Each structure stands twice: as C-alpha cells, then as structure tokens.
Amino acid sequence: MNAQVVYIYNGIKDPITVHVQSRDDDLGNQTLALNENKNWGFCELISFKTLFYAHFYWNSRTAFFDVYDAQTSLQYCQKWKMVRVRECFWLVREDGFYLGKHLNPFPEGWTKLYDW
Fold first, then answer.
1. Class assignment of domain 2-114?
2. What's phi and psi for 62, nearest 5 deg?
3. pLDDT of residue 1
4. The dihedral of CA 31, 37, 41, 44: what is its sign?
5. Which run of H or E residues covers position 26?
6. Which residues face 19 on adjacent strands?
C-alpha cells in the first residue's frame, strides 16, 4: 500500500462547502473560506480501486465528481516515491476545478478538469 493525501483548496472569495465520500467513508461537510483547505490521507489499495468523490456547493451552484481515483492520480498528481507521501492538490476557482501535483501559484502547474 502507498500513502496518499488529497487537498481541496478554496480559491474563491466566498465560502464553499465540500462533502467528500468513498464507498466506505463519509468525511462529512466542511465549509472552506478563501485559501482554506480540506485534506485527508489514506493508503492506496494494491488493486488501485480506491475512489473518493465530492459534492461542491457555492452559492446557487453545485458540482459533483470523483476527486481521487488511480487513473486521474497517475496523470495529475505527484509520482510515487518510496517512503514519501504522494499528494494531489485541487484548487476550486470561480471558473471551475483544477488539479495539480504541487500547491503552485495559479496558473503554473494546474490543469482544469471540471466546470461549475
């Protein structure tokens, strides 16, 4: 198993609410102010079938999508290294949702994956 941490940062001036779940875990609702983050760690299964999804709420807008799966993490998150936690960073902005390997200043290193 490999250790993994996923971060979701709010890049919107208004608060947003995030509700993260997997089949086995409900991490509940969390309201994030500008620049605050929700993060959680877990061990990726040998089968690479770990899946977390999230509901996002911002004023009257909502979005729902997978925030962690093996395929997306291999493409957009940090590479696996021995004895190091692998990290994925989501950035929520007014125009959509971005994923990156590092918490870089926007827009360097970020890839937009979803719209509101």
1. mainly beta
2. -140, 155
3. 53
4. positive
5. strand 26-32
6. 29, 55
